[in-house]
Amino acid sequence: MGLEEKLPSGILLTTVEKLAGYSRKTSLWPATFGLACCAIEMMATGAGRFDLARFGMEVFRASPRQADLMIVAGRVSQKMAPVLRQIYDQMASPKWVLAMGVCASSGGMFNNYAIVQGVDHVVPVDMYLPGCPPRPEMLIDAILKLQEKIQNEKMGSAKREEIVLNEEFARKELPLLERKGLLA
Amino acid sequence: MTTDYAPSIETTEGTVFNLSGGDWESLVTGVEGEQERIVVNMGPQHPSTHGVLRLILELDGETVVQVRPGIGYLHTGIEKNLEFRNWVQGVTFVTRMDYLSPFFNETVYCMGVEKLLGISDQVPERAKTLRILMMELNRISSHLVALATGGMELGALTAMTFGFRDRELILDIFEMVTGLRMNHAYVRPGGVSCDLPPGAVEKIRATVKHLRKSTQDNVNILVGNQIWLGRTKGVGYLDLQGCLALGVTGPVLRATGVPWDLRKTQPYLGYERYEFEVQTQDTCDAYGRFLIRLGEIAESLNLVDQALDFLEPGPVMIEDKSIAWPAQLALGADGLGNSQEHIAKIMSQSMEALIHHFKLVTEGFQVPRGQVYTAVESPRGELGAFVVSDDSTRPYRVHFRDPSFSNLQATPAVGEGGQIADLIAALASLDPVMGGVDR
Questions:
Q1: Cα–Cα–Cα angle for B48, B52, B58, nearest 5°?
Q2: Is the pTM here over 0.80, yes or no?
Q3: CB < 8 Å from A in window 268-307 of B
Q4: Of A164, B352, B357, B421, which sits 20 to 30 A from B280 (CA to CA)?
């Protein structure tokens, strides 16, 4: 390239995508979506000892309009599911969802009539975090992994292409019942 | 036709009464001419409703005319799930009901099962003391969260930081003893799952000593604080008559001056040996409940010390091998709890021991037909378990009388007629936990 050598000192070069990713990942504002036990651990993560503020994350927003990350902390009941979807719809794009705990990820131990068997039935999930409830360190780890994902997210036409590719991939996927795994 | 009946029309077939929708006019006529009222929905996703509680408010300006709590947004079907698991597995479910007081849920459930089995007096003394020890530590952590979230809802964020800071120290003890920070499943029918690990007693003593000092931070910052007084004094008024009519227990009832505490009034697990004062106030308001919680934290710290004094070496699980799980559980370095000695025995020496182990763990033990109600004093009030058995290895029905649920029905009583902002303070002083309300 040669361009780098000609730059005066104090100037760094990057792509727009990377710059946007960097600013997005370092100012994630989570919506307070505490439901059950995990919500207490989420609050503990925000409090003194674990101090989520170290990662630019402490601004828990009461209004979904101001938030870009929804941490679904706890079991989602059938009655809560429409509310959850509405909150998600009210958030401005770009937005991400973190399913905290096994109940939000897959229904967990509550395989019954009352609990939605994984919040991905209702909203698209970007990061699954197992545990019952996950320790605050695990939540921080999940958030850091999500930040990594956000950092590398595509923009513009590349993003549109990615969406089309993902859609095609999803269409080719067999329904769960027909998947044979290693038995095929 | 007289007009005493529903509106009717005469047809060739005879009189036809119209029963639907006829009440609308009579309802509307009273409202006309009054000031405009608006109906506002608050929750279920709202930062200051203590979890997923929905409040439907009818407002006249800023004044709350009517409150209707809407619950069920966290209904988990735990009681139904219990009917499909054996008696020991039930503990893992009940611990997740009121997630801020797991040890109370476990203990009250296990006391019920033990009563049905008729083994209440065979539970080892050490196990009983350990239950009390963990419950009292749990009471402190639960009250600390009540203060923390209550403070946060009223804008006192420092109270929240202090509350969670001190709670972490108690969770450290829980983790050391049970292996988990929350949802422990530590108390089992017949005793507790494992004994204290080495060094636990010293750690608990040191933590209690530290907490005596550090919990004073919240006292210093809030007691007598003008802003805090302004927000809580005279707010959420509920007198004795109201409490009795609504079945309210716990700090809310004690704030009316009645020293009703199940630990004193109908002692269980040997509480009669312990020396402590039942905290009461006579203000009937949110400030009184706040003072009671602070007082109970101090009393519970004393109780933890007393429980440690009462601890004597001995088994922590019942002798009867048809109830106690065969393995001697101990927390290993890898976090798993099986004793190598026991595994060696069942895998290579005794086929009968293996069969017994397998039957007991997969099928579980039978509990004689009957029904029983047990109650403990949880941080929120009387926590009761109604346990029914039909002589099988699974519960026929387990119902919990959760104090959060009973106390929550006082929401209209404490909130109506006040301002919206006061409703938040009043609700925070009831300290409902939705996991316990909806189960």
A1: 65
A2: yes
A3: none
A4: B421
Would you say residue B119 lies in a domain?
Answer: yes
pLDDT 10s digits, B29-56: 665 555 678 888 887 877 666 778 888 8
Per the structure, the complete domain to which residue B14 belongs is given by 8-70
| pLDDT score recorded for residue B25 | 61
Check: complex ipTM more than 0.90: no
If asked whether residues B357 and B386 sit together in one domain, one would say no
User: CATH number of the domain that B125 lies in?
Assistant: 1.10.645.10
Q: Specify whether B169 is located in the same domain as B267.
A: yes
**C-alpha torsion sign, points B142, B143, B147, B153:** positive
Contacts of A83 in chain B (CB under 8 A): 44-45, 73
Is B396 in the same domain as B337?
Answer: no
Report residue B42: phi and psi, to 5°: -120, 115
Q: How far is CA A6 from the centre of its chain?
A: 40
Hey, of B46, B49, B73, B80, which one would you mutate to test binding to chain A, going by the most A CBs within 10 A of its CB?
Answer: B73
Residue of B nearest to A81 (CA): B73
DSSP code per residue over B322-349: TTS-SS-----TTS----HHHHHHHHHT
Does residue B147 lie within any of the structural domains? yes
> What pLDDT does B198 receive?
87
Work out how many domains chain B is built from and give that number.
3
